[in-house]
Amino acid sequence: MSxxxxxxxxxxxxxxxxxxxxxxxxxxxxxxxxGGNNAxxxxxxxxxxxILHLIPSGILHKNKKCIIGNGVVIDPEALLSxxxxxxxxxxxxxxxxxxxxxxxxxxxYHKVLDKLREEKFSKTKIGTTGRGIGPCYTDKFSRAGIRxxxxxNERIFKDKLESNMEEKNAIFSKxxxxxxxxxxxxxxxxxxxxxxxxxxxxxxxxxxxQAIKKKKRILFEGAxxxxxxxxxxxxxxxxxxxxxxxxxxxxxxVGPTKIDKAIGIVKxxxxxxxxxxxxxxxxxxxxxxIRQKGREFGATTGRPRRCGWFDAVICKNAVTVNxxxxxxxxKLDVLDEMPVLKICVGYKYKDKLYTDFPADLExxxxxxxxxxxxxxxxxxxxxxxxxxxxxxxxxxxxxxxxQLAGAKIEIISIGSDRNQTLFV
Length: 424
Ligand code: IMP
Description:
With 424 residues, the protein is an alpha/beta fold. The chain folds into three domains: 4-102 and 200-263, Adenylosuccinate Synthetase, Chain A, domain 1 (3-Layer(aba) Sandwich); 104-196, Adenylosuccinate Synthetase, subunit A, domain 2; 266-423, Adenylosuccinate Synthetase, Chain A, domain 3 (Alpha-Beta Complex), CATH 3.90.170. It is built from twelve helices and 20 strands. Strands 9-7-5-2-10-1-11-15-19-20 form a ten-stranded mixed beta sheet, with helices on both faces. Strand 19 and strand 20 form a beta hairpin. The protein is globular, with a radius of gyration of 22 Å. Inosinic acid binds at residues 12-13, 38-40, 126-129, 131, 133-134, 223-224, 228, 237, 239-240, 273-274.
């Protein structure tokens, strides 16, 4: 198996950063294909915690090529400050980083619009990260977006920016009573960003397909999670891109026949940040316990994450829509002190039992989860060196997840360190 796509199987924050970091040693290229700096991938190297938002986590390894694909939306200011952050950690960035010339660019007006929309229309608040992701993708799909390649063509960039700003400034003043943006300032600033990014600009599809011809291995690094996918998630409480495995093809220009395997990352329980339905959400007491033990605070915004029981309906859905060959279960150790664990196997609403993930928001908001119970193990799992070191009840819990999800567990993570990883 050479080309692998790794996705989040829940609402994001499943611990993809660590698993991708581990899989990177057996790959040549690591590619981001959707989302932007709304993502936060945490990798612990020794005693140091490194959080990446846009740059693929493969950058932490020597001799790996990292590409930001065409499906990603790029805030140049955030990208360049992340480059400085990574360099300050002693990691060199040169031709190991590529940026697709077809990726769309986030402008200051996208970020402001993202925040203003959330404030003004609080009834439809999504709880976004405020990074301008939604407004940038909106421009992309309304065909008004500005791509990286456009920044290098003075006339095209000027024309596009002018017409965008005419429209945006009208919206800012008429809808939001917000001050107008200055064309010159943004134009000059983005021409400057373009100069700095120039050595990294590439045709992502050409680079990756050439690499495939040379039998190089590619890891497609998904951001967010299946239920935040614009098509398959809890719409409208989703992000604006295809965070499922299919996004890897459109977001890089690599055909589906070239991807050999899909791995889904699931947390041993469930979390989500932002608004939206969450059927297995904990009550306050359990929530605090797991949030503290699991350090469940957003890597991008620092917001406390909502936490709940493992939801097998979600996981089964993720296996189906992503075509998962295998799953990796993370943060098993967080459950070490739980005497009993619940797994949701269906939702009940108005006498109907739902065992497939329903699209109807009313069902998701109001349904009662149907649980099975598993005995806890009340032992420290964080020091296990192999699968069989895990307590019998922990293995039973994992087997249950595997059986309900319909995909085999290949990796188990029992702590943030690279060494705290078990392969089944
Ligand atoms: P946006 O992507 O900033 O537009 O936010 C849309 C929704 O996706 C919100 O509920 C965010 O909290 C959520 N979201 C976006 N990125 C991530 C992520 O990396 N992890 C978890 N949730 C995310």
